[in-house]
Structures are given as structure tokens and as C-alpha cells.
Amino acid sequence: MLYFLLRQLLNFAVSFFVLTIFTFGLAHLFPQGLSFIIEQNTSTDFFSGEQVEIVNQTSHIFESYYHYVSQIMNGNFGQSTVRGGSVFEEFFIYFPATLELSFGAIFFALGLGLPLGVFAAKQKNKWQDKLIVSTTLVGYSMPIFWWAMLLVLLFSLLLGITPVASRIGFEYDILPVTGFMLIDTLISKQTYAMEAFYSALHHLILPAIVLGTIPLAVITRSTRSVMISVLSEDYIRSARARGISAIKVVWKHALRNAMLPIITTIGLQISVLITGSLLTETIFSWPGAGKWLLEAVYRRDFPVIHGGILAIASFVILTHFLLDVLSMIVDPKQRFR
């Protein structure tokens, strides 16, 4: 187990090192405020604004990279050229909204994808199975922006069931504490706290469905494929022969052994959620990190682009590390590999 954790920590460190090399290279390619601006005889440190005299170009690059990494580890991602504030602080203002939306999307995808995948596996090659497979294929190939606008037209404008945009109704004034609107409304001392909670939940439904559609399709197909393989194993047939109920065989024995590849599939969807949040947050005016980063691209705010890419990529790497540890817990055999 210790060897497995050390190996995963090493993989995490190597991934972070490659990421910093990439973003450090961006700092040299775009001199508009990204980390270090190299001139002929001097270098401007973006973080401190001081002029540094260059004696040896090669040694200066290594020194610059060391200083760059040390500043990142201290949470100094630079200053926004548009707003003038700290990029690191801005990121943590907007990122909880993206996390809340992503949690809602993955909850929707798992809550619907796992039962559909299991049901499709049990009904293999029947019309129910073919219907689910065909529907998930359509959901996987559907462009997010088109699907979002279609749902807005149907549920918001035509039926009036869900709100069109934002995280909560404008009539509610909730003090941000955690950054997660659902939590902040529950811990709020306002008299309308529960009404605000239902408003926040109401606003979350449609963007979570839009963002979770592609992960839903992937999880459903992955669960179906793995469950078909697991249900044909000898120990499953033995369990059925011993008279164990079909529900217990499927949901306790089969699904538990199928969870490892499903967890891997979920990990691969993290990047899809972050990428999809760029469009989803823009369409629904969701004040998250995706919308914040996209606006920085429009405004050519290079420090925000640089810091946003670095922070989001670091989060994805950390999430994959935690999922690898979770996989070890689910499958103890990995501890001895």
C-alpha cells in the first residue's frame, strides 16, 4: 500500500512538473504580463515588477523557473491586467460555482447512468438495450451549445419551469461564505433562507443536465459494457445457483466488482466537465471559473488566462490522484502491484 501511494505521489509530482514547464513556456511566448518578460539585457519579473539584469541567459532561465515555481507554490499567480486584482484570489471566488455545477452534473450522470447501464446489461440485445444504447449515442454526439439552447427554449421559455440564467433569484441577498450557493443558503440567517435554497436548486437543474449529458452517455455505456462482462463470470452464476436474489447479485456482487473501470471512466470525465463548463456557464450566465476564463480570453487578460489554466489543470491532476487512491480502496489488489 505504501509503495502504491508513493508511486501515485511521484506521478502527481511529474505531472505537475510538466504542467509548470508548459505554463512557464507560455510566459515566454506571451510577454504581455505573463510571469517573466525577457528583453535583451534585463528581465521584468511579472510577480514583483522588478527589473533583473541578465548575465547568463541559460542560468537566468533556470533561476526564473525556480522563482516562478516558488511564487506559484506561495499562491502568487500574478495580477489581472483588467481588474487589477490577484488572479489567485479571483480564481477562488469563481471556482466554487464551477465545482457546484460540476457536482450537480456528475450527480445527474451517475444517478441516471448507473441504473441505465445495469438495466441495459440485464436486457442485453433486447429492444430496451438497443433503445438505451441508441439514446446514449445521440446524447454523446450532441453539441452542448445546441442542447443547452434547446432545453432553454423548451423548459424556460415555452413551459416556464426552470430559470434562464444566474445561480439564484435576484430577490435574494445571500452572503457568500463557502462559495457554494446551496450551502450558503442553508447556513444563511436570513428569514428567506429555505426559499433561497430552493431558488438556487431550481437554477442549478438545467445547467447541470446540460453539462452532465455527455458524462451520462459515457457512464451508461461503460457500465453496460462492464456489467455484461461481470454478469457472465462464474462466481455470478454460482451466486444465482445458491439462490441469492437477482437484485442482490446485480447490485451487491456484480456492480461492486464493476466499479473500478467505472471510477476510471468518471475520472476521465473530469476534463470533459471543465471544458464543457466554458460553454455551459456562458449560455446560462453562470458566474463560474469557465465564464471567468472565457471572458479573460475576450479581454486578452493574459495573467488570468495563464493563472486559470494553471489552477484548473492542477485541480484535474489532483482529482485524478484522489481517484487513483479511491481505486486502490475499491480494488485492494492494486496495493500489491
Output the keywords.
2 domains; 337 residues; mainly alpha; 11 helices; MetI-like fold; single chain
Summarize the structure in short.
The chain has 337 residues and is an all-alpha fold. Helix content is 72%, strand content 3%.
- Cα end-to-end separation: 9 Å
Q: Cα-atom Rg, whole angstroms?
A: 24 Å
Order of helices and strands: HEEEHHHHHHHHHH
**Number of structural domains:** 2
Strand count, sense and barrel status of the largest sheet are:
3 strands, antiparallel
Helix content: over 70%
The neighbouring-strand order within the major sheet is 1-2-3
- SS summary, helix count: 11
The CATH class designation of the largest domain is Mainly Alpha
Indicate the mean pLDDT: 80
CATH level-two architecture of the largest domain: Orthogonal Bundle
Low-pLDDT parts are 34-58
**Structural class determined from secondary elements:** mainly alpha
- Quick one: how many beta strands? 3
CATH topology of the largest domain: MetI-like fold
Q: So what's the overall shape?
A: globular
Strand content: under 5%
What's the CATH superfamily of the largest domain, by name?
A: MetI-like
General description of the model:
There is one protein chain. With 337 residues, this protein is mainly alpha-helical. The protein folds into 2 domains: 72 residues, no CATH class; 213 residues, Orthogonal Bundle (MetI-like fold). The protein contains 11 helices and 3 strands, in the order αβββαααααααααα. The chain has a 3-stranded antiparallel beta sheet. Strand 2 and strand 3 form a beta hairpin. Helix 1 runs antiparallel to helix 11 and helix 3 packs antiparallel against helix 4. The longest helix is centred in the middle third of the chain and has 39 residues. The chain is globular, with a radius of gyration of 24 Å. About 7% of the residues have low confidence.
